Amino acid sequence: MIFQIYVQNRIEEYGNEIWNLLKNNNGYLFIAGKAGDMPVEVTACIEKIADENGENGKQFIQMLEAKGRLQYETWN
Asked: Is Cell membrane one of the keywords UniProt gives this record (predicted)?
């Protein structure tokens, strides 16, 4: 049996640590990989973590993008 683990699974697993880095330590997030579902799902996961911590997830993502702290490098 093959069990696949995706990056969004790890983001959920380490959500508190990632939130602390992004929110409290001005961390950066670089999403690199195949275009399609992966970047959308990873971004949704970060939004969910922000929502769970009392922030507006969509606005938090927009702020990260505007400040260059969230960047994407994807390909087909």
From this structure: no
